[in-house]
Structure formats: structure tokens, C-alpha cells
Amino acid sequence: MKKWECTVCGYIHEGDEPPEECPICSADKSMFVEIIEEQQSSRDQTELPTTAKVEPTLLGKVYAFASEQILRHHLHPISVHTPNGVLPMALLFLLITVLFGLPHFETAAFYSFVFVLLTMPVVICTGYEVWQKRYRGALTLTFKIKIGASIITVTLLSVLSLWRAVQPDILTIPSTGRWIYVLLSIILVSAVGSAGHVGGKLVFGSRKN
After folding, report:
1. In whole angstroms, what is the distance from residue 74 CA to residue 162 CA?
2. For residues 8 and 138, what is the distance between their CA atoms, to the nearest angstrom?
3. Is 108 helix (H, G, I), strand (E, B) or coil?
4. Mean pLDDT lowest among 39-43, 91-95, 151-155, 204-208
5. Got the DSSP string for 22-46?
6. What is the DSSP letter of 102?
7. pLDDT tens by residue, 159-168
8. Gap between the Cα atoms of 14 and 1, Å rounded
9. For residue 2, what are the contacts with CB-CB under 8 A and spacing of at least 6?
10. Which ranges in the chain belong to alpha helices (H)?
11. How far is CA 205 from CA 26, 35, 141, 150, in A?
12. Which CATH class is domain 3-43?
């Protein structure tokens, strides 16, 4: 039986034809290549032609080093655990405040929002590097979901943090605005969860058995 490899995420498919869409990264059928071991062995033994090397600038060297460390030490999966772990806790604190009238939990939720907002540049930058270097910048449905979820997350974190800073009693005084605040927080956590789901699918779903 033939084997086909997705050139975006590395998923291996067995069958006479490649799938219409990669089940891991949503890449099109055209992104699959047939795996032929003899050809692969031949390619591995063939020396690549040498080309003239251009000495990179200092900035280029710094960028290349940083990019290498991001991929080697898996800095994106590490950094992305911050919003995935902290934001559901913050939402729980908001619900405790609304249901039981405990303002200290609301304060903790607010600082959690601010903390995650400050970490988002690291999450986005490391994610961009992984997307470009490991997945060739493929703009499939999977990556569109991750990008869209990141935009929603940063936008809602900014809105909720600024709203709470301007109106500190937004959750402690009964009002329509309080429920809108909670609803936006639920959407925020849902966006983070969606990004985490497709991200986990990319990492674990593309493993070759």
C-alpha cells in the first residue's frame, strides 16, 4: 500500500491516493507527496550543490539564533500554556464574584487578565516562528483558526482589562454591563480553547507510528 506524507505537518496517510484534505492541518490534497523509500535513500546520499554563502548581518545572526532556540526548546508550547491555564481560572473567579459577591476574586481575575495580556507578545512571536519554519507558513483552515483565535484573544483581553480599569465596580454592582463582561470573558476562554485544541492536534496528531 502506498504512503503519502503531508508536506505541511508531516502526517502520514496510507492508501492508493492521498486524502482530499489533511485531517491534521487541513492542507489540500496537492500538498501530499508519495513516500518512496528507495528515492528517499537516494536523495539522502546525494550531495547538494554548493552555493556561495552570504555573510549575514549581526541582526540576521541574532534573529537566526532566536528562531533556532524557539524551535529547539519548544518555546511556543511552553508560552501558550499561560493563557490556556490562567484564563479559565480567571473566568471561574469572575463567576464566583457574580454568584457569591466576593470582590477579592474579581480583583484576582483582573490581574490575571493583565498578566496574560503582557505575555501574549511572546506567545504570538513564538507561534509565528513555528508556523513559518515548521509549517512553511501554510494558510490552511487549521492555521486560520489559530490566527483568528489569537486576534480575538488579544482584542478581548485589551477590552476587558481597559473596561475594568475604567470601571472598577463593573462586576460588583448588578447591571447589564456586568453580564456583557462575563459573556465576553466566556468568548475569550472559548477562543483560547479553540486555539489550544487545533494546536494540540498539530503537535500530537502528526506523530508517525
Report:
1. 32
2. 7
3. helix
4. 39-43
5. -TTT--BGGGEEE--HHHHHHHHHS
6. -
7. 999 999 999 9
8. 7
9. 14, 15, 16, 17, 34, 35
10. 37-45, 58-72, 75-100, 103-134, 141-166, 176-205
11. 12, 19, 16, 21
12. mainly beta
12 by DSSP, 3-state: which? strand
Handedness of CA 150, 201, 69, 118 (dihedral sign): positive
CA distances from 13 to 8, 23, 81, 108, 147 (A): 13, 10, 30, 47, 26
- Interval 86-113: pLDDT, tens: 999 999 999 999 999 999 999 999 999 9
Spacing of C-alpha 134 from chain mean position: 13
pLDDT digits (tens, 9 = 90+) for 167-187: 999 998 999 999 999 999 999
Distance CA 121, CA 75 (A): 13
d(CA 115, CA 161): 10
Q: Distance between CA atoms of 101 and 95, rounded to whole angstroms? A: 9
Closest CA relative to residue 130, chosen from 86, 76, 64, 184:
76
Rounded Cα–Cα distance for residues 130 and 74 (Å): 9
Burial (CB count <10 Å: 0-12, 13-18, 19+), residue 40: exposed
